[in-house]
């Protein structure tokens, strides 16, 4: 690097974690040359708003948590406000949802933690020691089934987990899916005490909305963040990452006409598999992680009578391909359109992706038939418009002790980044810090802070 040249940081991955990392770098260190690279033709990753019957519909996440565990606004809310979208934040008109089981819609029980009730009858007998040893990790099912029973797990806990992770209670890490409960279980000798403590740790304002969205769609948030970045390069896969003296050398572009790019520091904000591949070319090891694939089917129907709910969840034990349904125009008042009813259904659970092999036409027919059965209708009318969105390898499936493996990787990256003459490298995204837009934004910002600390050290 020539004397006086600006140091360059490259963020690999243009999903919301990578965007948040690049935004944080620009915010804290405007003297740096920050480049964001993504192999897609547009930033945002799984956040994308498209048109259905003349109005917006999400291809991916429709909303994000409004608050954080400390009681303030979530990282997603803060980011939206930073990029001028504070006035565009909207909240659900209704959040009342139900679970479909046994041919009936059951209200989600109030006062629960991811469907886990505080109390049980008969009362739970205290264990001889806290439920978890310090640092111990188990599956959600291993903690809850013996203390609340299969019915609670299968009917309430698993559908809620499935809506977030497309995962199963008996396979998902407690510390990744419910970290507050895992922490409380280290101090409690009953699940009742642990759930009560985890709920108490939530410092939310009574009556405050749990979820938020962006009027006009999530693409507005993506575009607003991207607009703050001076150098966004799209359609460029990163094929290789190697140390070249005190800098990184990236090989980018197609195999037929690759080019190289030098960087003084790198943020890897891509899923676990491509991250592991690039880490291996850098002489480092990634974190093993499986992913679940999902499909989303959006239907614009002629005005149709629906249950007065924001949507419903479907336990895997019910035998439906559909695992969740959102009644969009009932949940979000800003999406209501005269003469239309907008419904979006989710298909695909971890280990059960066979339904996703169907053609779009078959999947549309299946979803229409199942949604009709779930709401007790003979049939749904022919849609005015419809779309199928497929996300292969979309949602991380965190096995127990995933957090420990991530901690080990980050310790290795810190040791590498702080060694004399070594260029810094950090990782960010759902593969490491949890799903959901706020978690990914926080992950990206934290990675940027760690990188700056290494550059300044």
Automatic annotation (TrEMBL):
Record bears the keyword Ion transport: no
The signal peptide annotation in the UniProt record is none
Q: Please report the stretch or stretches of sequence annotated as the Amine oxidase domain.
A: 16-452
* Obligatory cofactor(s): FAD
UniProt entry tagged with the keyword Aminoacyl-tRNA synthetase = no
Superkingdom of this protein's organism: Bacteria
Keywords, in A-Z order: FAD, Flavoprotein, Heme biosynthesis, Oxidoreductase
Q: What class of enzyme is it?
A: oxidoreductase
Q: Which InterPro entries match?
A: Amino_oxidase (IPR002937), FAD/NAD-bd_sf (IPR036188), Flavin_amine_oxidase (IPR001613), Protoporphyrinogen_oxidase (IPR004572), Zeta_carotene_desat/Oxidored (IPR050464)
Protein EC: 1.3.3.15
The pathway where this protein functions is: Porphyrin-containing compound metabolism; protoheme biosynthesis
UniProt catalytic activity: coproporphyrinogen III + 3 O2 = coproporphyrin III + 3 H2O2
Q: What's the family?
A: Belongs to the protoporphyrinogen/coproporphyrinogen oxidase family. Coproporphyrinogen III oxidase subfamily.
Briefly, what is this protein's role?
Answer: Involved in coproporphyrin-dependent heme b biosynthesis. Catalyzes the oxidation of coproporphyrinogen III to coproporphyrin III.
What PANTHER family is this protein classified in?
Answer: PROTOPORPHYRINOGEN OXIDASE
Q: What is this protein called?
A: Coproporphyrinogen III oxidase
> Quick one: which gene encodes this?
hemG
């Amino acid at each position: 690097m020539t004397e006086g040249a600006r140091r360059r940081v490259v963020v690999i991955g243009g999903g919301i974690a990578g965007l948040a990392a690049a935004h944080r770098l620009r915010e804290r260190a405007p003297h740096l040359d920050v480049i964001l690279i993504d192999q897609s033709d547009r930033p945002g990753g799984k956040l994308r708003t498209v048109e259905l019957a003349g109005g917006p519909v999400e291809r991916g996440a429709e909303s994000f948590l409004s608050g954080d565990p400390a009681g303030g606004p979530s990282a997603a809310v803060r980011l939206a406000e930073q990029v001028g979208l504070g006035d565009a934040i909207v909240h659900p008109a209704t959040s009342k949802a139900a679970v479909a089981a046994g041919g009936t819609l059951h209200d989600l029980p109030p006062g629960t933690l991811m469907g886990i009730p505080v109390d049980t009858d008969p009362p739970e007998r205290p264990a001889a020691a806290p439920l978890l040893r310090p640092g111990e990790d188990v599956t959600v099912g291993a903690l809850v089934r013996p203390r609340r029973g299969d019915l609670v797990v299968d009917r309430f806990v698993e559908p809620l987990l499935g809506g977030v992770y497309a995962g199963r209670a008996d396979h998902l890490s407690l510390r990744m899916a419910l970290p507050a409960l895992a922490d409380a279980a280290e101090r409690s000798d009953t699940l009742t005490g642990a759930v009560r403590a985890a709920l108490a740790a939530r410092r939310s304002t009574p009556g405050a909305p749990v979820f938020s969205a962006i009027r006009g769609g999530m693409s507005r948030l993506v575009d607003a963040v991207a607009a703050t970045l001076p150098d966004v390069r799209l359609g460029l896969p990163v094929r290789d990452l190697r140390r070249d003296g005190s800098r990184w050398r990236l090989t980018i572009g197609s195999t037929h006409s690759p080019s190289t790019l030098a960087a003084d520091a790198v943020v890897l904000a891509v899923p676990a598999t491509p991250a592991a591949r690039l880490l291996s070319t850098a002489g480092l090891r990634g974190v093993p992680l499986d992913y679940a694939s999902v499909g989303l089917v959006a239907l614009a129907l002629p005005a149709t009578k629906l249950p007065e709910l924001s949507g419903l969840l479907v336990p895997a034990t019910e035998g439906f391909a559909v695992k969740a349904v959102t009644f969009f125009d009932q949940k979000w008042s800003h999406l209501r359109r005269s003469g239309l009813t907008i419904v979006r259904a989710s298909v695909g659970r971890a280990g059960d992706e066979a339904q996703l092999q169907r053609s779009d036409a078959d999947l549309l027919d299946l979803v229409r038939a199942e949604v009709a059965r779930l709401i007790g209708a003979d049939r749904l009318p022919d849609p005015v418009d419809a779309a199928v969105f497929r996300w292969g390898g979309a949602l991380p499936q965190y096995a127990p002790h995933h957090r420990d493996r991530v901690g080990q990787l980050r310790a290795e990256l810190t040791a590498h980044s702080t060694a004399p003459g070594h260029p810094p490298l950090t990782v960010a995204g759902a593969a490491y810090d949890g799903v959901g837009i706020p978690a990914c934004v926080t992950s990206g910002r934290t990675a940027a802070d760690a990188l700056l600390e290494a550059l300044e050290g």
